[in-house]
Amino acid sequence: MCSSDLVHNMRPQAIERLGFDYDAVKALKPDIIYVGAYGFGQDGPYKAKPAYDDVIQASSGLASLFEPQTGEARYVPSAVADKVCGLTVSQAITAALLHHARTGEGQFVEVPMLETMVAFNMVDHINGGAFEPPVGPFGYARVTTAARRPFETKDGFICLLPYTDVHWRNFFTAVGRPELMEDERFATYRARVHTIEDLYSFIRSVTPEKTTAEWVVICEEGQIPCMPVASIQNLADDEHLQAVKMFEHHDHASEGETMLVRSPLNFSKTPTSIRSLAPLFRSEEHTSELQSPDHLVCRLLLEK
Q1: Which of 49, 152, 185, 238 would suit a FRET pair with 276, their CA atoms being 20 to 30 Å apart?
Q2: CA angle 302-99-298, nearest 5°?
C-alpha cells in the first residue's frame, strides 16, 4: 500500500463516526484511493448489517451448496469468505493504482463481502439460470453431487478425477473395463455430465481394491489427475512443500520458535519474505508507526 491509499473493513456508520468516511478524507486528499471492505453493498437494504464469515457463507448461498451432499446446509471449514474478499480487495487496489498511475485520479472503491461471494459462487453455479428463460436449474451438478467426495482406498483416501475422454478411456482400461467407454452414457463429455453420479459410484466401487500409492501409479501412467488426500496435520512433512520451503521457522520475542507459512508467490525481481512477526501482546509496537508523521492516517488527523 502506498501513501495515497486508505483501506478499512469497518461498517460505514462506524468509520463516519471516526471522521474517516470517503468524503471527509477526499476533502483532505483529493487523489486518495479509498477502499471500503464492507459486509454488504451500500445501495441495498442490508447495508448496515454486521458481517462475519459465517454470515456471508450463509447469505451468499455457499452454505446451501452442501445440502445435496450432506442433506443439510453447512459452512466450509475455513474462513473462505474472509479470505476471498481479502484477495478481491488486493485486486481492486491494484486496478485503482493503475488508474491513478495513468490519470492521477483517486477514487472510492467498495468491496462488499456478500456481492463478492455471490460472484465467486455463481461463476460455475449460475448454470442454466444464465439464460432467459432459464434452460436448466442453478448449480453445477458435478460439483454438488453427493458422489463428489474423496474415494476410499485400501489404506486411505484419494482424489481421483478422470475428466476428459482420454482420462476416462485410460481409467476404464486400467480397471479392466475398456468397453465402458463405448457405453452411450459415458462416451462423451455431454453424456457424462448427466451420469456423473453413476461414474463416481463406479470409481468408488473399485478404489478399495488397491492402496493409495498403487492408484497414484496407475493414474500417473494414464495421465489421470489424482492426489492422495492430505491431512493438515502432516502438510509440513509433505515432500513437495518441503522442497519449495513453504513452512518457515522464526524466533518470536515472546513465543519462542514458531512455524509460519510463507507467501505462495514467487517474484523473480521482487521476492517476498516474512519481514516482521506478530507484535508483542499488549505492546505499543505498532502504535509508534501509526503515529509517525509519515503515516497517512496520522497526516490526515494532523491536517484535520
Answers
A1: 238
A2: 10
